[in-house]
Backbone:
């Protein structure tokens, strides 16, 4: 793909899948029905159709298994596999907002190495490959250079975010919520938000964003003990951004606040 700043067949496959799925979702947004899953999260017919589109691309272009939000997947014992969130920000999508997208990531040797996040209505294509940088279109991404926590603009997302939001907001001049984990990670990778606090999530909420944040010069550390490998961060409960701010946020959380994050359940 000539418009990508990284030449990589894995990336190109993920981009094709995410773009077709995202564009299809956008085209049916006003007519697709929604319902509640067993965990009370919203799902639409477009989520399932979008994941089917991604899976078809990945099946045709790769031999690796796929683990997706709507159709699951058997990755037991696998260290290389695709991770798919067909529509992250489904509540936004169901309310006719443009703040949603399709995320596709590749995990290799138990770490995410390729991440794609496509927001069709804004035509924002975020992508990254381990060791080769992160981009939005042709623009190289870099996390914020803000180092003063009191002046920072954080972003909060994840299951139970309303419980930790006051703890984050008291540290700064204000905090935002956008209703999408991958968008949160892409905003931090872009420097549009200085630091992110992500509560309980699922691997498809994290995989693409892990690559984006790391390749934009940031880190992801668990709230509890500062671990940063994929096994530790794959279900959220992390702080993301430039390392000085990440460490500053983690240091400010009280033991009760850390426990609150750890005890938030997400039955994905």
Residues:
């Amino acid at each position: 793909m000539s418009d990508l700043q990284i030449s990589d067949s894995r990336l190109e496959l993920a981009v094709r899948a995410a773009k077709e799925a995202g564009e299809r979702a956008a085209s049916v947004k006003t007519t697709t029905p929604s319902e509640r899953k067993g965990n009370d999260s919203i799902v639409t017919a477009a989520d399932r159709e979008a994941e089917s589109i991604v899976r078809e691309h990945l099946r045709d272009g790769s031999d690796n298994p796929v683990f997706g939000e709507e159709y699951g997947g058997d990755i037991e014992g696998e260290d290389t596999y695709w991770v798919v969130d067909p529509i992250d920000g489904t509540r936004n999508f169901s309310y006719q907002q443009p703040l949603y997208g399709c995320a596709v990531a590749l995990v290799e040797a138990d770490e995410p190495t390729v991440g794609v996040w496509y927001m069709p209505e804004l035509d924002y294509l975020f992508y990254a490959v381990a060791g080769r940088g992160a981009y939005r279109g042709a623009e190289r991404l870099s996390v914020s250079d803000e180092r003063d926590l009191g002046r920072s603009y954080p972003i909060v997302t994840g299951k139970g975010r309303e419980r930790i939001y006051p703890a984050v907001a008291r540290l700064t001049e204000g905090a935002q919520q956008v209703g999408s984990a991958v968008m949160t990670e892409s905003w931090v990778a872009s420097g549009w938000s200085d630091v992110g606090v992500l509560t309980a999530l699922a691997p498809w909420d994290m995989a693409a964003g892990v690559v984006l944040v790391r390749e934009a010069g940031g880190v992801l550390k668990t709230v509890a003990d500062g671990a940063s490998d994929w096994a530790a961060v794959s279900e959220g409960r992390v702080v993301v951004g430039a390392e000085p701010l990440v460490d500053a946020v983690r240091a400010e959380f009280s033991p009760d606040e850390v426990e609150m994050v750890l005890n938030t359940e997400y039955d994905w």
Observations:
- The longest strand covers residues 111-119.
- The chain has two domains: 9-140, 149-262.
- Residues 9-28 form the longest helix (20 residues).
- The radius of gyration is 17 Å.
